[in-house]
Task: structure prediction
Amino acid sequence: MSLDVDYSSGVATGTPKSASKLPLILSVAVTVVSIAIYLLFPHDGLTMAIIGYLLTPIGATLALALGQSLDVSGRRSVWYSPSKGLITALKILAVVGFIIGGLHMWDIATIVAAA
Amino acid sequence: MKKLSALLLAFALSLLTLSSLPAAVADDLFPAQLTAQGQRAVQQIGDCVNSRRDLQVYYLIDGSGSLKETDPQNLRAEVLATSLEQLAPKDESLKVSYAVGTFGSSFRPLKSKWTSITAGNATSEADWFRKTIPGLTGEGNTNWEAGLSGAINALASAKAADPGACQVVVWLTDGGIDVGKSKTNYSYEGESIGNICGTNPISGSGGGDAIIDQLRSAKINVIGVLLRNQAVMSALQSKDPNGYKGLNSAMSFMLPIVEGNGSVDGLAFDYSSSSFRCGSSNSAMAAGAELVASDTLQLGLQFARVVARSNNGAPASVYGDNPAHFMIDKGVAYFDALIASKNWKLVNPKGEVISSPTSGVKAALSAGAYLVRVPIRNGADQGEWSIQGISHTQADVFLYSGLQLKIAVKNIEAGKPVGISGQVVDKSGNPADLSIYKSSDIRLTTFNESSGVDGEVPLQLNPATGTFSGTFTPAKGMSKATFDVSLTLVTQSGTKLSPLTLQVEARVALPPEYPHIQGSGLELTTLTGVDGVAKGTLVLEGSNLNDGQVCLSNPVIKIDPTPSRINGFKWSKAGAGCINVPQGKTVSVDYEVSNKKQSTGLTTGAIPAVFKATVIGLEPIGQDISLTFDSKMLINETKRWAILIGLMLLGLAIPLGILYFFGWLNSRIMWGEGIQRVAVPVWIAADGSLSRRDGKLSDGIGAGAAKGEYDWSGQATERVRSFDDFWSDGSNSGTVSVKGRASRNPFGDPVVIATASAGTRVISSLGGFHNGGREGRIGVDVGQAWFVAIPESSILNSESGPYEATAVSYLRHDAAKGNGQATDRNAAMGTNSGLALIENIAADLRKPAVDSSKPPKPPKPGKKKNGKKATAVVMPAVANDPFSGGYGTNDYGSTSYEAGSVPQTPPNSTTSYSAESNPTPPSSGDNSNPFGGSY
Result:
C-alpha cells in the first residue's frame, strides 16, 4: 500500500468517458448474422445451424458479459458515465438471442435426428 | 418570318441530332424495343402457357442501394404489383404461381413459398409488392451471379414439385454488375460474368459451365428488366465521367446474358469486340428478352406489353390523334388497352363511353399508365373504337381471340405414321367457328431433343367446325415425340392475331418387333429415411413376333427436391448391360436405390436403354425409360426432442455459466486508485438519524465529514476479492470484512458483503438486514460505499438510543468536485432509509437468545482472496490524517482523544451534557446533523 502517487492531480486531469458501445454493436451484429443465417441458408446444413447456435445465444451472452465487465471496471474512474440503457439493451438482446437460438436448435435437432 | 422559321427548324434539327446521337449509341446497347430474340422469348412464354396452362414466375429483384436514386418514388413496386395482377388467370383453366427473391451483394429469398395467384387474391398479393419492394434498398451491391444462382435453385425446387409448369424469371435491376470488391478494377466483375456466361470478357477464358445455360436448358425464359434512369446516368456522366463509362459498360452486358448474344460496350473489361456471346443458345433452349426502360413509366409500359404478348395478345394498329382509333373485328373476344395518359375516354363504335380513369370498365393504374381489359359483348362492339384525349403514340392495344386448341394423340409408335386430330374451342369450350376470320392456318412442327426443330407436318383444318387432323410419323429412335400445333388467324380487316399454340409431348411406343417395358416407366417404392431403400422391378416384355434384347445403362437422377444429394444416390441393384428378352416372355430387372441424405418430394430420372429386335433390317432404338420415386424424411421424434431439450439446456447452461464466470471476475472489489476514507465517531438515534459525537463541524462547509477529513488509504491498482477495514474511533473498534461474489441473478451486478466482527453490527450503503445486522451490502465500487458500525454494547447499554457508532465512508477522489464530493456523501448517507435498520438491529439484540451457544461466526481475516490469492487490505495510519492523532486510530490499537472534545457518554434522557463539551445528537433534518438530508 503506497501513497507515493499524487492522486489528486492524476484524477483531476481525466476526460469524461461514456460506456463503450462495442458490446452493443457486437450483440446486434451476432443477432443479425444469426437471423441472416437462418433466413438465407437451407435448413439442411448442420454447419450453418451450429454457427447460428454459437452466435445466439452464446455470442449474444458473451457480448452482455463483456458489456457488464467494461461497465463495472469503468466505474473505477470518476470520469466514467455508466449507461443503464445500454446494459438493458444487451440483456434484451441476450434473451432475444436465446429465442433465435431456438430456431437453430430445432434445425440441429432435426438434422441430427434425421441422420 | 422565313428567317424565324428557318431558325426554328435549324434549332429543332440540332436538338434532334443531339438527342439522337447518344440514342443511336444506346439503341445497340440498350434496345428500346424487343429484339428478335426477345420476341421469340415472349412467343415461347405464350406458347408454353397456352399449352400447359401452368406458369411459375420467379421475380428476382435488385435490392441495391442505388434504387433510392434511380427510382426514388418506388414506382417499380407498382409496376411489379400490376404485372402480378395482369398475370392473374381469368379462369380456372390456367394456374399461375410466383415466388420472389432479391439480390444485392448476395441472394436472399423474399418469398420462397410459391403462391398461386387467382382472381380473388391477385390484389392482396400485389399489395405485398407495394409494401415490400420500396424498402428493398439495403442489399448492397449488384451481384448478378448470386441472384441468378439463387433463382436457379428456387426454380429447380419448384420444378420438382410441379414438373409440368412453364417457368419464367423476371429479373429486375437498375445497374451494371458490381460484386463490390473494387470500385476501379472490373476483374472481379469479369470473373463473375465468366461464371454466368462461360466466358470471361477480360481474359477470354472459359469459366466452366455457364450458369445462364442452366436456365436456358431447363426451358426457363428470362425477362431481364433494366431500369436505366436517364436522369441519373446524365448526372453521373457530368459528375464522374469515368464512373459513368464503367457503369454503362457493365450495364451493357445484361443484354447478352439475357438473350445469349448482343452488343456490348467492353470498356470496363478491356473487351475489344462490340458484341459478346454469353453461354449457349439454340432453338431447343429457352430464349430471353431484355427490356430497357429509361424511367419507371417506360418500364411499366414495356412490362405491360410483354405480359400482354405473353398472354398471346396481338398488337393492334392504333392510328390518329385525339381521338386515336383502332379496329375490333369479328373473332376478337376481348382486348387490352394500355394508355399512357391521365385523361382519356374509351369509346365503342356506337359512341358509348366504355371506360375512363374514373368510370366504366375498371382501369388499373401502373406507374402512370392505365391498363383496361374490355370484353367484346356483341356486334355493337365490333368496328372502329376510339380513345379520346390521346395521340396514337400514347396507347397500345392487344387483341385476343379467346380460343383454345385441344388435341388428341394416341398410340405413337416410332417410325410409324400416327393420326392426330383436334378441335379449336372458344372460351366457353364450344367448337369455334373459324369461318368468321379472313384466313386461318394450322401447322404442326415437330422437335428433336438434340437439334431442335425437326420438321413441319401439314394439317387439314375445317374452319366451319374448328376441327383439324393430320398424320405425323415420329422418327426411329425417338423416345418422346414433341410437337407444336399452331393456329394463325387473320381478322377480316387484316389484323393478324397471335398464333394459338399448343405444345404436346407424348411417349413414343416401340414397334411390335421390339421388346418393350411393362407400363410407362419404372416407379420405385418410397425412399424413407437414411437407411431406407426405394425398390422396384422393371419388367421387360418380349415381342410376340421375335426375340429381342434390351441394353440398360446406369440410371440417371435428373431432378430431386434436394439437388445437393443427386450425386449421393447408391444403386445396390440395377440393370446393366444387355439382357435377352425371348419372344413372348417377360424378364424382370430389380432396382434398389438409397441415399444417406434425406429429403421429401418427388425424384425423377431415366434409365438410358437401347431396344433391339432380332430381325434383320430393324435398327436398335434408343429410348430413356422414365424413373420416378418419392422420398420421405424419417425423423426419430424421440431423438429430435431429446437433442432439442439437450441443446436448450446447454444453451441455457453455457450462457449462465458465462455470466456467472464474468460475474465472479467482476466481483473483485474496486479498491485503490484514488480511494479516500474517513472514520467519524457518531451517534445514531433510534430513528436512524446521525450526528457527530466529537461535535466537529466540517471545515466551513457545514456539518458532517469534510473533504479535508478524508485520508488517502488502500491505494492499489489491482482489484481485490476482499479486504478488511479495521475501524476505530478511540473508544470503540472492530473489523468489517468486505468480500465480493458473483450475483445469483445472472443479469445482476456482483454482490459485495460487509460483515462486522463479533460484538458489532453494521448498516451499509446498499442496506439490507442480513444475519441480524451483522452483514450489509455495499457496491462493487468502494468509492460509492459507506457503513456505520455499531458496537452491540452501545445498543444494550442504551434502551432507546442514541447509540455510539462509527461511520466509515469511502470516496474516489474527484478534484474537480472539491468539497462538494464530501457534501454529497453526507447528504446521501443522511437520507439513506437503511439507517432506520437500527431499530431492527436493536430489536434483534434485545430478543431472548434462542441458542446463545452459537454466536455468529466472525470473519477470518487473512483467508481472504485478492483476485488470484487471498489478501487483506489494511487501513494505513497516515501521518497527516486529521483523525489519526485525534479520535482516529493509530496502528489500529491505541487511541487518543483531545480532552474536552469527545463526549464520554451518550446523551440520553437520564444524562445531561453541557452545551460546550457534550453535544447532544441533533434530530434528523436539523442542519447541524452532519449526515442529515439538508444537503
Q: What stands out?
A: DSSP finds 16 helices and 45 strands in chain B. Confidence is low (pLDDT under 50) at residues 1-27, 858-935 of chain B.
